[in-house]
Amino acid sequence: MNPSPEQRLQALIDKAPRQLTPAQPLWDKIEKRLDVPQPSKNHHWHQWAIACSLLLALLFSYRFWLPETKEMTELAESPSQALAQDDLQTLLSQIDAEHKRQVSALEIQAHSVSWKHSQYGTPLEAGLRELREAAQQIYRSLQTNPTDKHLWEIWLWVQKRELELLLQKQKLPQETDIQTI
Amino acid sequence: LNAQLSEQGLTATDKRLVALACEGSKAAFKQLYLRHYQRVYALSLRLSGQSSLAEEITQDCFVRLWHKLPLYRGDSQFSTWLHSLCVNQALNSINNHKKFWARFLPMDQHPEPLHHDDQEYELDGLILRLPERARIVFVLAAIEGYRHQEIANLLGISVGTSKAQYHRARQLLQEMSP
């Protein structure tokens, strides 16, 4: 008599091996990682503090910009429109400079904790490249049309995403840890 | 190391190796690795469903073990303690892996073929084709002997959900089985 599907499955479970062997030896890679200090809880707090600071800075930039926009909208309808355009251009440059400073600080921090390129980082790198290209195009459009609120919102969002990706990138394992993948 | 221990008339038990590894002996830690890595890899592979991720989890698990060894007090079997550490590591890694790649890649994963013709590995070939949550619950319940309450606590789901996923997995496996 043929076993029922339930019995057959139970037989498979019963004879499933307790141990399996990976396709390649893992010890050498493990041994290399043993002396690398584990990130402490304080380190996590440090990263969160940096992330929060960056978000606050962005939020502050955004809040700082809002009254300017309102003021500019009013001014745009007045004869002094040219002056408002100049103010917005200045603001645009200031936010761009501040963002570049934040990106630079993050990249310096990444190097200081011995972050290395890894194949995990490849899609992340591609994402960052695309974001930066998009940010450049939006920035150029904003320079010619600084009163476009939608462009401003997209630009600030793209900047925020870039910072998030950079923070994410710092958490990637080192290349030596993932050579087998 | 084994020869050294034999000279001292000692059997290199897990606890002895743990004690030596806690003092910084990588040779003792390697012995622990050699004793347990296949068990850890089997668990990691079945839970993750991907050999590359299972290798990563196995590495992470032993690196974590190295740093956590001083916390092992010997109240339970070392293998039981390691098993628990490995399950937690695997579940964390699977979640992190999923979150990370979900930003860049479509999540419809295709199961990797298991390169074993032996009937012994038939179940593993089928497990890899299960949906992720059903696979994890099935592996923990059917192969690792966890109770549904324990699985529910580990995965942050209800006991009823765990049981439902388990029965779903069994049903799917029966349908897949030739």
Brief overview:
The complex is a heterodimer of chains A (181) and B (178). With 181 residues, chain A is mostly helical.
Characterization of this structure:
The complex is a heterodimer of chains A (181) and B (178). Helices cover 73% and strands 0% of the residues of chain A. Chain A contains 6 helices and no strands. The two termini of chain A are 46 Å apart. Chain B has 178 residues and is mainly alpha-helical. Helices cover 70% and strands 0% of the residues of chain B. Chain B has helices at 2-7, 14-22, 26-48, 51-68, 78-102, 122-127, 132-143, 148-155, 159-176. In chain B, helix 3 (26-48) crosses helix 7, helix 7 crosses helix 9 and helix 8 crosses helix 9 (159-176). Classes of the chains: A mainly alpha (181), B mainly alpha (178). Chains A and B meet through helix 1, helix 2 and helix 5 of A and helix 3, helix 4, helix 6 and helix 9 of B.
Classify the beta-strand content of chain A into a percent band.
under 5%
Task: Report the uncertain regions of chain A.
Answer: 71-80, 175-181
Return the structural class of chain B.
Answer: mainly alpha
Biggest interchain interface, per-side counts: A-B, 35 and 42 residues
- Output the number of helix runs of chain B: 9
The biggest sheet of chain B, with number of strands, parallel, antiparallel or mixed sense and barrel status, is: none
Radius of gyration of chain B: 18 Å
Oligomeric description of these chains: heterodimer
Structural class of chain A: mainly alpha
* Number of DSSP E strands of chain B: 0
Described by the principal axes of the CA atoms, the overall outline of chain B is: elongated
Radius of gyration of CA atoms of chain A, rounded to a whole number: 26 Å
Q: Output mean pLDDT of chain B.
A: 84
- Uncertain segments of chain B are 103-108
The helix fraction of chain A, in percent, is over 70%
